[in-house]
Amino acid sequence: MKKYEEKKFDFHALDGISEKTIGLHLGLYSGYVKNTNTIIELTDSMKGDESKKYALLEARRRFSFEFGGMRNHEYFFEQFTGGVQELDPESALAKRMVEDFGSVEAWKENLVGLTGIRGVGFAVLTYDREAGRLMNNWIDEQHIGHLNSAQFIFGIDMWEHAFMLDYAPSEKGSYVEAVFNNTNFGVAEKRFDEAA
Questions:
Q1: How far apart are CA 75 and CA 95, in angstroms?
Q2: Which domains does the chain have, with CATH numbers?
Q3: Strand, coil or helix: what is 139?
Q4: How many CA atoms lie within 13 A of 108 on its CB side?
Q5: Residue 118 has pLDDT above 70, yes or no
Q6: What are phi and psi of 40, to 5 degrees?
Q7: How far apart are alpha carbons 157 and 175 in whole angstroms?
Q8: Cα–Cα distance, 189 to 89 (Å, whole number)
Q9: SS3 193
């Protein structure tokens, strides 16, 4: 059985997000990868054993949380690689933002509004291939709220571990702005180009 492997990320120096926070965050990501593999191994080993049916079903229920946590973090961390790059106003992504939200600024305002949701999760820009449109949505925890077939284009991790070493809960807005200020939007543009 092929295992999932932790991805390595070549972060540039982040302004407003400390190395300590990134180190902690990478450790949590490592746990998601490990737990994803563990659940696959467990479910493979329990197949056909009627006495483990309940445990098998519970492991399968937990799988989407661990797998979602792995992928959400991979997308999130990738945005901080390759140096800071602003969104190109001539990119296909920026043009689609204008079509679907009215302006790039309106898209950002809409997404930032999602970051005020109480609770843990991710505020995410996704692209729905079938409808050919961008949408902002909230992924609760790691797995509730993923939209079928919608591609993750850009996202902000809103779990406390992503910012609490650097910002108090009342300063979440400063953390969100730090994410925008440290993002390589070329990564998001490429995701959109590949999805569209």
A1: 22
A2: 17-196 (3.55.40.20)
A3: strand
A4: 13
A5: yes
A6: -60, -45
A7: 10
A8: 11
A9: helix
Biggest CA pair distance of the chain: 59
Closest to 67 measured CA to CA, from 26, 24, 38 = 38
pTM, two decimal places: 0.93
Residue 51: the pLDDT is 78
Residues in the chain: 196
Q: Which of 165, 176, 156, 137 is nearest to 73 (CA)?
A: 156
* Number of CB atoms found within 10 A of residue 138's CB: 16
Structure tokens at 13: 């120096």
Find out whether 157 and 115 touch, Cβ atoms under 8 Å. Answer: no
Position 92, amino acid: A
pLDDT in tens, 16-29: 999 999 999 999 99
Q: Check residue 140 and give its pLDDT.
A: 92
Q: Where are the alpha helices (DSSP H) in the chain?
A: 19-46, 53-78, 92-101, 104-114, 172-182, 185-195
Tokens at 23, concatenated: 């180190």
